[in-house]
Design goal:
This is Thiamine-binding protein domain-containing protein. This protein is α+β, with helices and mostly antiparallel strands. Helix content is about 40%, strand content about 30%. A 4-stranded antiparallel β-sheet has the order 2-3-1-4.
Amino acid sequence: MDRVVSISVSTPYLVEVIYRRIVGELRSLGKEVEVHVEGNTISLPLIEGVVEAVWRVIKTSPSAVFTSIDIK
């Protein structure tokens, strides 16, 4: 089974905002990663560079935005 980073946020609006920020970070690193959105959850495969990009988004966002962050 592939490893996955799963991020749940509090509202559908924030899903779009966080999704765009993660995709922007990944593009700036030159990573081609398929990001999936289902409800209020964003999932992406755990490959080299993904954790760093996600961490940049998390640490620059208010903590109230996120309901859970799982690395499986």
